[in-house]
Design goal:
233 residues, seven-stranded mixed sheet, 11 strands
Length: 233
């Protein structure tokens, strides 16, 4: 199935400081290719033909060699890849990617989340078309505690209402762009404002409700050295 009305933004602009390795997490090799390759490949196999990679500052040329000009890791001549440099925070980077998107719908995905399945991608695509905003998520398995300023348990939320959010996250492009514009405008007045994912900016700056699509527990993000064991499974 072709999804020609949908573009992909791959968030690869992080420094990877929590990984504590010389190689940034999105470029760690797995099955002969960097992790970001596997993320791109999965979406290409689901019919997406346009992707924007948001890379760290100063690394645009390297990413273009990998995915635009080069042949060794090129996924397909049919996949049109643009590369742009990100900003200081994830939301800065995603916004830079959005500036390159003209298609009606957009998917945002973490470069270091290489286990994403075709089923998850299809779920989010279908739900995005239906609800205009949809994110992959799974029910939380553990009991969650809210603590006070002194480290004591202050509350225990109902686990049945808690979900762990993943990527991809899909949106109608104009809605997400408008939400980000409003966020950055407000942040000029209060630079302490912070968002942790794209759904959060839509929740805060639009009236649209974000739908939770069925994710998978195996759709893990490689973030810390402990996560590297997942690549050996």
């Amino acid at each position: 199935m072709e999804n020609n009305d949908l573009s992909l933004v791959i968030a690869a602009g992080g420094s990877g400081s929590r990984m504590k390795t010389d190689t940034k997490k999105q470029l760690i090799m797995w099955k002969g290719h960097p992790l970001i390759y596997h993320s791109l490949r999965a979406f290409f196999e689901c019919g997406i033909r346009h992707a924007v990679i948001v890379c760290p500052k100063g690394e645009k040329e390297m990413y273009e060699e990998l995915f635009v000009k080069g042949d060794e890791n090129l996924i397909s001549k049919e996949l049109l890849v643009a590369v742009t440099e990100g900003g200081a925070e994830r939301y800065d980077s995603v916004y830079q990617g959005l500036l390159h998107i003209d298609n009606p719908f957009v998917m945002i995905h973490d470069a270091a989340r290489p286990f994403v399945s075709h089923e998850i991608i299809s779920n989010v695509i279908n739900d995005t078309r239906k609800y205009l905003a949809a994110i992959a998520a799974v029910p939380v398995k553990d009991t969650i505690k809210i603590i006070d300023n002194n480290g004591f348990c202050a509350d225990t939320p109902d686990r049945r209402l808690l979900y762990a959010v993943q990527t991809p996250q899909g949106f109608r492009t104009d809605i997400l762009k408008t939400a980000y514009d409003l966020f950055f405008e407000e942040r000029k007045k209060d630079n302490t404002l912070h968002i942790t994912d794209d759904a959060m900016v839509v929740e805060r700056y639009t009236d649209l409700k974000v739908y939770l699509s069925k994710g998978e527990y195996g759709n893990m993000k490689i973030t810390t050295p402990e996560d590297l064991r997942l690549l050996a499974l």
